[in-house]
Amino acid sequence: MVATPKSDDQALAWRGSLLARLPGGRRSYWFVVAGAAAITGLAVAAMAALAGGGSSLGELTPVIVATRPIEAGEPLDADNTEARRYPALTLPAGAVGALVGDETASAALHPGDVVTEARLGGLPIGDRTEVAIPAHTALPPLAPGDLVDVLVTLPIPGDGGAQTQATLTVATAAVVTDTADHAVTIAVTSQELLPVASAVIQGSITLALVQPG
What we know:
Layout: H1 5-21, H2 26-52, E1 60-66, E2 81-87, E3 129-134, E4 147-157, E5 163-179, E6 183-188, H3 190-202, E7 205-211
Antiparallel strand pairs: 1-2, 3-6, 4-5, 4-7, 5-6
Helix pairs in contact: 2-3
């Protein structure tokens, strides 16, 4: 479609309005654009790594996964779950490898969610999804019930080929549901899940305690 003078004027007016609203004007505008592009790159890298299932993500491990929506208080059985195999390093802490027959969900589960011990009588997390944060990342002392912000540090191309770093918040007030020697498990919203998972795979994630449980 060929742009008309009117449509060009509208586009320029929209961009000018955005620049006026951003602190720092034009420089902040391009910072936001660069940050969004970097997050997109992380998401693509995460999806490629998960699809490949390479050895860098650990051995394939059997876990129990929800196959349909499960409400809190509903028993888990072969009608609403099944066993699948995922790379070990992509699994949340406390992932359940098998059912013994008397498990009941303590929080809602969505199709594809990995069943964890925290969702079998642990801390209620509502509609959030759990993500394991490796212990080698920047972690403050945490306990189940704490609320944390999740930050990722990204390289941003600068003038003359130089690079700077920018830190973006990819999740706010995530709920800590489990702590272990090798990882901390947090519960995030569906909108935050992919950016957080991408940051975990890239190894540039930081948790900031915002409220003790």
